[in-house]
Amino acid sequence: xxxxxxxxxxxxxxxxxxxxxxxxxxxxxxxxxxxxxxxxxxxxxxxxxxxxxxxxxxxxxxxxxxxxxxxxxxxxxxxxxxxxxxxxxxxxxxxxxxxxxxxxxxxxxxxxxxxxxxxxxxxxxxxxxxxxxxxxxxxxxxxxxxxxxxxxxxxxxxxxxxxxxxxxxxxxxxxxxxxxxxxxxxxxxxxxxxxxxxxxxxxxxxxxxxxxxxxxxxxxxxxxxxxxxxxxxxxxxxx
Length: 239
Prior knowledge:
Elements (H helix, E strand, L loop, with lengths): L6 H12 L18 E2 L5 E3 L2 E3 L12 E3 L2 E3 L2 H8 L3 E4 L4 E4 L6 E2 H4 L4 E2 L2 E4 L7 E3 L2 E3 L2 E6 L8 E7 L6 E8 L3 E6 L5 E7 L6 E6 L5 E8 L10 E10 L1
């Protein structure tokens, strides 16, 4: 095959092949001009059978060679594998397979009332390990050392009554009762959580509640020489 392509033509062909449905999707300041080559001489097999690659309109598309590597059109390969493929213009993301409709609780909704603790979001660019799990955002409720048994701390968020379930992980440094409360302080979830126990995952039915509160109640009184403990809520997804 005679290798000839202008920088502009190669760029347009590459974008068209890889993201057939996303012309002009990337912002100008993220583009890099390259010289690449369409190579109809490359045969693609799937499960041992030779396949013809096509775009969303059924037109034939070809692999591209660049810098010693071969690149295949995303949509064409996804079609061969039976995967759904979608383009998210806002985030410039190619989604393969079914797109999740879950909403991240902690990054999306800000706690309007926290008795003692804090909410850390991804935009804060802080990271920590919770029960051996690396986290970039979390909700933290604190029990101070001099609190007596039965002392309650909480963090409340308004989730607008839009969701059916909440799935999250929790971890407590000290023994507490963890509750999830809905509208009118209805108890949606309650569990005794031993301090230092490995993080657990739970799914809670929300029944489209508007207000969501995480509440911790101290199980044991601490002496003046003991430090208080934190309870962490993280990896929280609304569905």
